[in-house]
Each structure stands twice: as structure tokens, then as C-alpha cells.
Amino acid sequence: MTRPPSGQARVALIVAGPTCSGKSALALALARHVGGTIINTDSMQVYRDLRILTARPTVAEEACVPHALYGVLPAACNGSVAWWREQALVAAQSAWNAGRVPIFCGGTGMYFRALTDGLADIPQPPPAIRERARALLAELGAPALHARLQQLDPETAATLRPNDGQRLARAWEVHAATGHGMAWWRREAVLPGLDARFIAIRLHPARDGLRAAIARRFHAMLGQGAMAEVEALLAQNLPPDLPAMRAHGVPELAAVLRGEMTRADAAARAIQLTGQYTKRQATWFAHHPCAAPADTFLYEKRFEKDEAAQQMERVGDKIISFVIKRIDAGQGFP
User: Fold this and answer.
1) In contact, 133 and 173? CB cutoff 8 Å
2) Is residue 311 located within the same domain as residue 246?
């Protein structure tokens, strides 16, 4: 593969899709073939306390090729999109400096948008205003806070669901601190995305097969020690609104440990909520392309009994061939 002419953007790969669709295995195969560094693009896999429940790559998988931004934050931290963007740009540059291809793998749409389109440079409100926003959310509830935001900042309120308490509180605090709403900041102050030519593999699995795969994986997680992982997390006495405390499976298994839910009911609930989340993920990726059409491979994955071995053998070679041809077409090797 040839190096890009001076001034030409370098290539970065994207492996995107819903939870449990096989992204990590595909990214690993690609990294082996093109000399890649896999960069986490999942908002929950950044937390070191949740290796099992967030299905982070195993220690053995991480040893096969370089990985970045996996398990790098304690659960007590709030890994924001702004933090991830900054770290991701550094990780991509480090990969290029080492002569490797950055491979962004995950299912968090906001992270991918920050990567490809940039991110609004929104000032952090003072602690007192942030505390007031959380107090209002607790006092009024999300729907009433949404109604209040509609009066203050109707443009931003129109983009938020009335039951999305965390984002509503964030929108209220930004307006209270700056006099401008989130929508205004997103238009007027944008930090750039990664200067790269993106080649994307979008996984779009069949719904029925994905639901079954989610159920299999969650029960496997229970067998691998997910309950003990949640118990250790609860022992830290962290605020319940931290992202790690709301990861799929954490609230349900926490309820089991408190004696409020049976293990079977918790598993059923976690599987159901994860399935609902994957539907939202699929919708997001369908409406927010991560690369140009010619540089995008849509993998409409079907789950079969022999999926791990035979499906990767059938489709993996086609995907790898597509990626290599697109890299060569743009002379975008690092």
C-alpha cells in the first residue's frame, strides 16, 4: 500500500453498529490484516470496573493488536463526549505515528458524530448551577423540566425526549450558565473532528437474531461473574446518576443484590432494555452515515448456529478486501 501525497488526509476505519452485533471480532480481524490499532468508540467500555457487563475485549484479544481507550476511566468519573473526542484524536495520531491504521470500533453514535463532524465547544457550567439543575430534575421530574426548558430554550427542547432527565438537566444548566442553549452552541462553536478519510463498516443485524444473541451473551456474562462485578461497583457507594451506574445490566443486578428482584426477572429486564437500545442504535446509524457511500460497507448480518466460524469466513474476506481496495483507491495508508 502506498503512502498518501503530502497534505492528503490519512485513512481511519470505522466499525459501527448496535450492541452485540459482532463489532469487536470484526475489528480484530481487520486490525490483523491492515496493521490497525483498535480505538474504543463505546461510552461504557471506557470504564475499567465493567469489563464483563460491557463486553470489553478480553485480555488475550487486547494482546493480539494494540487497543486504546478501553477500561481507562474509573467508574467514579463521567466520561463525556468532549473528553472522548480529545483522547480519540490523540490515539489516532499515535496510531499513524506508529505506521498503523486507527480502527474506531463501537456503538455510541454521539462519539462517532464528534469524530467525523466535530463537537460543539460548550463551556462547563459552575458547580452551583450544575447542582441546581440536578435539584430541579429531582424536584420537578423530567417531563416538567422539559416543559420549563421549552419556555427558556424551545429550539433545544425540541431535540430532547421529555423523559430524558440527564440531557434535560444538561440543557438547562448550559442555558442558565451561558444565556445560550445547546442548539446555539452546536451551531456557533464547533471543535473539529478527526482530519481523516473514513472507511466504514456498518453492521446491521437481523432483529430476531440480535435479540437472541443479546440473551445468550447476558446469560454468559452472569456465568463469567457479572454479579460480582456489580457488587464491587456498589461497594464504592457512587452516585446513581454516573454513567457506569446506568450501564446495561447494572441497575437490574443491583436490584437482585438488594433483594428487590429475582435473578431471572433481572436478566429478562436487562435483555429487554438492551434490545430496545439496539433498536435506537440501528435507527441512529441508518440516519447518520459515518463515511461517504463509496467508502461504506453495509453488513446485514444474520445470526446462525455456526455464526462465529462460518459467517466470518464467508463475509470477513469480502469486508477485508473492500477495506484494502478503498484504502488503495485513496492512497490513504498512514
Assistant:
1) yes
2) yes
Final residue belonging to a domain, choices 188, 207, 230? 188
Residues 169-178, mean pLDDT to the nearest whole number: 94
For the segment 16-63, what is each residue's pLDDT rounded down to a tens digit?
A: 999 999 999 999 999 999 999 999 999 999 999 999 999 999 999 999
Q: Same domain, yes or no, for 155 and 249?
A: no
Question: Do the annotations mark residue 109 as ligand-binding?
Answer: no
- The answer to whether the annotation marks 21 as part of a ligand binding site is yes
The neighbouring-strand residues paired with 147 are: none
Beta-carbon neighbour count of residue 71 at 10 Å?
18
- 2 within a domain of the structure (yes/no): no
DSSP-derived 3-state class of residue 74? coil
The response to whether 181 counts as a known ligand-binding position is no
151 burial type by CB count under 10 A (0-12 exposed, 13-18 middle, 19+ buried): exposed
Domain that holds residue 91: 10-120+191-330
Nearest residue to 303 (alpha-carbon basis) of 182, 219, 214: 214
Distance (Å, rounded) from C-alpha 26 to C-alpha 23?
5
Residue 318, annotated as binding a ligand: no
Residue range 69-87, pLDDT digits in tens:
999 999 999 898 999 999 9
The reply to whether 17 and 68 lie within a common domain is yes
The verdict on whether residue 18 carries a ligand-binding annotation is yes
205 with 172, same domain: the answer is no
